[in-house]
């Protein structure tokens, strides 16, 4: 949960928050990136949201998440050696210094798209198109 405001159909978060950003993982457990101080800027309609999530990706989490979820051959398609990727992440890290002054997170931006879905249960009568909170949120975004 986070605080934000909608201006002209665009959600803008006003207070940064820490989030876990799931990403596609081939042949493995679900993977995620831990994003610190995340902020959202999403254009909203009653049916979808599209925009950017920005913040600072935790380097250790990002590195280990990719290595757990992607095999070496997946990384090799881009001719990337994971040790080299890690060194560059550390080199360019720009936030959250540890006790030795080494930054542990790197600026990151994620392009994102979302659509509203409706789960229909055949044994239950659907009386609303969405929960009152979701309907109010979507209606205010459309204005």
Q: What's the end-to-end separation, in Å?
A: 23 Å
Number of helices: 4
What is the number of beta strands?
A: 7
Contiguous runs where pLDDT drops below 50 for at least 5 residues:
none
The best one-word shape is globular
Radius of gyration, in angstroms, nearest whole number: 19 Å
Helix content: 25-40%
Explain the overall architecture.
By secondary structure, this protein is α+β, with helices and mostly antiparallel strands. Helix content is 27%, strand content 39%. It contains four helices and seven strands, in the order βββββαααββα. It has helices at 59-69, 72-76, 82-92, 132-142; strands at residues 4-7, 10-13, 17-23, 31-44, 48-58, 95-97, 103-115. Strands 1, 2, 3, 4, 5, 6 and 7 form a seven-stranded antiparallel beta sheet that branches. The longest helix has 11 residues, at 59-69. The protein is globular, with a radius of gyration of 19 Å.
């Amino acid at each position: 949960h986070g605080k934000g405001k909608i201006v002209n159909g665009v959600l803008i978060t006003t207070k940064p928050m820490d989030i876990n950003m799931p990403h596609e993982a081939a042949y493995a457990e679900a993977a995620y990136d831990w994003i610190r101080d995340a902020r959202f800027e999403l254009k909203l309609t009653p049916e979808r949201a599209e925009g950017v999530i920005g913040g600072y990706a935790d380097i250790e989490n990002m590195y280990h998440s990719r290595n757990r979820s992607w095999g070496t051959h997946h990384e090799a398609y881009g001719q990337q050696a994971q040790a080299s990727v890690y060194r560059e992440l550390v080199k360019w890290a720009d936030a959250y210094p540890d006790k030795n002054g080494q930054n542990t997170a790197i600026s990151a931006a994620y392009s994102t798209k979302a659509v509203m879905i409706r789960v229909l249960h055949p044994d239950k009568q659907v009386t609303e198109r969405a929960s009152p909170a979701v309907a109010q949120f979507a209606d205010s975004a459309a204005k």
